[in-house]
């Protein structure tokens, strides 16, 4: 009997040790960093020069209202998305900036949508940072504390006086008196603000299902019809890179941090669940709740190419 007890005692650690080994072997491995860019896309891990995509020149047919006929023009993506160069005046929070235009917005003909010297309040598309202030509403103090950090990071990469480039799919696209668009900054406007905020771990994405459906339909087209069709895989790389490498709010050595995007999403007290807006670009390996399906995720598309 004593011998049997000894054998059982000796065997117990091996049984216990087998559990974590099995758990590790069943974990999904991230795929975001092994997917290769194709076509006009630059390598996804070179996300900090994604603005170079918009330099690409191509021919486009537009309707000339003066001549009352279709004409072909040589253009690029900056022009297609009515770019305007601006100076940063101030940041309201991590995703809302006020700028002063130093050029008129580009137009193929006619009056530009925004003239030189215009004051433009911009709601950055593709992301949604934690709330720092809300009109007539008290913000949860924990959310506000985190929001002050992402606000400070936004100001550090695009400080007051910075020259940035703003593009939009439509100048009539507004949100609460703010123009909705993407900001590019740095040398030759290579860096995209939304991508940088995701890659540095200071925000979750805000991507509607229509944006994913557009990418799904258009990602093999030679010329992309929308800004998000170009940026989508870089937004995806950015959010997953931050999680995988514990950047920003995922840095567990910092006092204020999140262990997962699920935990990050729970801090959005004002908006409620935000993770659902990131599922289309989240690597399945980081989906701890099993909400990603092949029908709603970019990597089901990119791994087929």
UniProtKB/TrEMBL annotation:
Signal sequence, renumbered to the chain: 1-23
Key words, A-Z: Signal
All residue ranges annotated as the TNase-like domain in the record: 82-252
SUPFAM superfamilies xrefs: Staphylococcal nuclease
The protein's name in its UniProt record: TNase-like domain-containing protein
Species of origin: [Mycoplasma] anseris
């Amino acid at each position: 009997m004593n011998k049997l007890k000894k054998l059982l005692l000796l065997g117990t650690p091996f049984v216990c040790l087998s559990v974590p080994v099995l758990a590790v072997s069943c974990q999904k491995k991230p795929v975001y960093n092994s997917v290769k860019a194709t076509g006009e896309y630059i390598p996804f891990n070179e996300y900090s020069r994604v603005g170079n995509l918009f330099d690409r020149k191509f021919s486009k047919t537009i309707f000339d209202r003066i001549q009352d006929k279709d004409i072909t023009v040589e253009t690029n993506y900056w022009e297609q998305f009515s770019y305007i160069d601006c100076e940063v005046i101030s940041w309201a929070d991590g995703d809302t900036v006020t700028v002063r235009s130093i050029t008129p917005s580009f137009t193929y003909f006619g009056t530009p949508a925004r003239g030189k010297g215009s004051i433009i309040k911009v709601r950055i598309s593709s992301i949604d940072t934690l709330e720092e202030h809300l009109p007539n509403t008290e913000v949860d103090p924990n959310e506000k504390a985190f929001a002050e950090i992402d606000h400070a990071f936004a100001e550090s990469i695009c400080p007051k006086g910075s020259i940035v480039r703003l593009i939009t799919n439509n100048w009539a696209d507004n949100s609460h008196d703010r123009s909705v668009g993407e900001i590019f900054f740095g040398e030759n406007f290579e860096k995209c603000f939304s991508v940088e905020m995701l890659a540095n771990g200071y925000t979750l994405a805000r991507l509607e299902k229509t944006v994913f459906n557009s990418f799904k339909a258009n990602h093999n087209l030679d010329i992309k019809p929308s800004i998000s069709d170009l940026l989508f895989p870089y937004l995806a790389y950015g959010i997953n890179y931050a999680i995988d490498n514990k950047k920003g709010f995922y840095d567990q050595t910092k006092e204020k941090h999140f262990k997962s995007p699920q935990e990050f999403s729970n801090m959005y007290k004002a908006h409620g669940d935000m993770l659902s807006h990131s599922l289309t670009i989240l690597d399945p390996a980081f989906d701890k709740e099993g909400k990603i399906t092949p029908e709603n995720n970019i990597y089901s598309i990119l791994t087929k190419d």
